[in-house]
Input
Amino acid sequence: MNQFIVRHNETKEYIYPTSRNSVVIKLECLVDKELIINLVYWKRFNQNKSKKVTLKNFNFSGFSHFYQVELDFSESVRYLNYYFEIIDQDEVFYYTPYGISQENTNRFFEYQSTNENDIFKTPSWAKGITGYHIFPDRFHRGNVHLDRKNIEDWDNKPSRINFFGGDIRGIINKIDYLKTFGIDAIFLTPIFTSSSNHKYDTIDYFEIDPAFGSIEDLKELVSKAHQVNIKIVLDGVFNHIGFYSKQFQDVIEKGKNSPYWNWFYIKGDTVDVENMNFECVGDYKLMPKLRYSSKELRLYILNVGTYWIKEANIDGWRLDVADEIDYTFWQEFRKSIKSVKPDALLIGETWHDARDLIRGDQLDSIMNYRFREYVLDYFIRQKLDKESFKFKIEELMFQYPVQTKDILYNLLGSHDTPRLLTIANHEIDLLKMVVAFQMTYPGMPIIYYGDEIGIEGNTDPDCRATMKWEKQNKEIFSFYQQMIQMRSTQKGLKYGDFKHFDIEDDVYGFVRTFEDESIVVLFNNGTQGKNVNFDISIFNQQVVDAGKGYKVKFHISENTFRIIKVIEKDNEMKFEILA
Output
């Protein structure tokens, strides 16, 4: 009985509703062997009518540590009692709140009821889309009427203080490029008035920075993007404000007599700029941290959030350092934004475990930096072996609500990280491997502008170089375009379930299943080519004639991948090599 470490609690991490009539139940069982885990459940006082269902895991063949099942009922889920039955070969164990036993102790977990506001709903339009992340000053110059003084030549090296003149009009002029490329949503770094090139030190949340254009330019961008079914998501920097904002300048001038005094964390009766007696993000003086115990501040930022949806019809917010802000404010922010635009997308920046942000009462999704680290550690840095990588990926999928599976912001690079080609040591085959993984994995693959044409550079400021419109790596661009096109036309890659698929020691693989099709994705991350073969009939839930030539055989070279579509039609199994 001590051979299992089993985890399940009557909390949102392990049991939660997806509708009033359905509920997801999860279990961790940390043992390296194949098990059958059943859920036995019944409605209170009706144990004689109990039902049993087998939980699914994240491995098509082989063991997994993570199990879950979604139960559907004809009525709202109430007074649900349940326990787990763990079958290890010929032995049966029972898991209840009192632990593991080889005897059925008639004890059980309980789920009380589901209310409407308990149900986590996410924007349906965002599921499986491909996004594009733009740093506006470095993307494209469009408005010839803007002041072009004190800007660098477009091909000059970026620094932390120089400007290059990219603007909103430049993005408008490239909408056709982005649509042809296959982009469904544009995510912008901040565009509001600021003294910096990155705009993360906001001076005025209600004004577009003049270097980028005007509110009319933003409205035109949103309108033209919407005409070709591209969404626009803005960057909300609400954890801190700019040093030169009127609010903080008023506090410097008036001290405690300023109406904004309680918007900030200040030690003493006045602001000491030289000795920095006020809290800042990253201890950076130009970004004073905001204090959300202030009711006036909360109302102000709620007004900012709804203003740009009402005025410009934006489609959501990417929220900077979301894990540093009072969670009760995000609860208010969600209610406020969703009351104006129910399908607005709310994404939080965090580099860590984000479960506290996506419980259903705050944000819809998060920037999945953990995904990025795991992918780079396995494919490029070689810090994870295959089994460790599989565990990390399954753990990541298990920990977050199923409603977020298809809308996690899966990035490989951003304005805060080195460029992807640089991390890959300029090896295009390695870049292709990680991009192929990103494009076939559940969620929203997000491309940082310029990665699709092979821009290189280390971290800030090098990763914020200008878009090289005339110096594109055509091989990389063509590959991105091919992968985006494949993802957009294959529903299995956009919405399918995910399971690992083991066939060779050095070959990592998974299967995405949607309706009557399965898509097998295999990666050879080893140093030698491998001959791979398997019977596609294993993907058929029905018994098929194994003598009909369902064997798939091919060679997969080192640092390459294969994508195979398996279709069940008219009791026949067919396959197609997609890549």
In short: The first helix runs from residue 168 to 173.
